[in-house]
Amino acid sequence: MGRVVLVTGVCRELGGRFARRIAADPDVDRVVGVDVVPPRGDLGDVRFVRADIRNPVIAKVIAAEDVDTVVHLGVIATPRGAGGRTSMKEINVIGTMQLLAACQKAAGVQQLVIKSSSSVYGSSPKDPAMFSEEMPPRRMPRSGFAKDSVEVEGYVRGFARRRPDVAVTMLRCANLIGPQIETSLTRYFRLPVVPTVLGFDARLQFCHENDALAVLQHALRTGVPGTFNVCGDGVLMLSQAVRRLGRPHVSVPAGAMSMLGSLVPQARQADLSSEQTAFLTHGRGIDTTAMRELLGFEPQATTAEAFEEFARSERPGPLHAARIGELEQQLTSVVRALSRAGR
Fold this sequence. Notes:
Layout: E1 3-8, H1 13-23, E2 28-35, E3 47-50, H2 57-64, E4 69-72, H3 85-105, E5 111-117, H4 144-162, E6 167-173, E7 175-177, H5 184-189, E8 194-197, E9 203-204, E10 206-208, H6 209-222, E11 226-230, E12 236-237, H7 238-245, E13 249-252, H8 254-257, H9 260-263, H10 274-282, H11 289-295, H12 303-314, H13 318-322, H14 324-340
Helix pairs in contact: 1-6, 2-3, 3-4
């Protein structure tokens, strides 16, 4: 008898692709995909159950399907994908609490895999060159996805203490990137003129979307418990990333970044919140020694290779390039106006 795996968040790109991927695994008997809305694409052999993890009904789904393994990919990174910040908070924190409560009651659950984020370390000028898993943030995230991720991890650690019989693996992935996945950072890099923080050049690390799928499946197969940083080798500076995209950039005072979305229509699609601005100012570095030595996983793409594949799919064409001068002038005018106003 193979394993029965429940995957949350299957209506989004990563969750749907992961569910289809493990459905083909010979060690997996059935995959149950859960989300509040049906997925846009075909899930193949995955059984889809429309359910809201914020509702205690998720416990009935786990019991009815005889689930022994849960992979939680239902934490949302941007308010845009959740219908607002309040809804995002409820899905991320309340949803995780309900899911963990359901897992705690289900005696048959033997393994829990959580996709977390390196954003739990925050971004500040006091950060070390590399964060290891045991190191706390120098400045706790105070808003948005990063704060939600910190709370989610706290509840997961509490669950692990209450159910020591369950193998709990938490994967702190760096920013995911690739030609198919859409995140707040990929939307930022897709802007025709990229705003950067004046006087700073953030350190970036990336995890290729295929490596994210691979590490989730690796954690599922091996059952190695613990918390692990996940990203490709190396570091890329923000200035290097923008050059590789072939896009112009305009330097903006940190205090003005969050205003660009309201003043420049093209910038509204990007997340320029205070959390994102801090990241684009200071960046972040994570140490992946434990990923290699304890979890036994080796990413296929380095940080630079992962970004280069994304860049190849996003370099502007001739029609795109024709509007760049106009947009760059518009952004520059906004920045000058904010500077004169003392922003």
